[in-house]
Amino acid sequence: MSIEKLEKWEPISGIPDKLYLSELSDSGHGLCLRLVGETDAPVLYVKFDSTLSYRNTDEGDRLKFLN
Predict the structure, then answer these.
(1) What is the pTM of this model?
(2) Any residues with CB less than 8 A from the CB of 47 and at least 6 apart, and which?
(3) What local confidence, expressed as pLDDT, does residue 13 receive?
């Protein structure tokens, strides 16, 4: 039986309202996301040590399915 460790989430101040995914890398070190604002300067890095699954979809290619 595992015991869950819960931590209170505190918002990070100074993050822009709109962020864009600039980079997604999946390696032996985990899943890493690089988020940027309007200026393309790195704003936030998110790292997951382990993931069960995720989905990455190019929305431009998905539009082809509508026709």
Answers:
(1) 0.58
(2) 30, 31, 32, 33
(3) 85
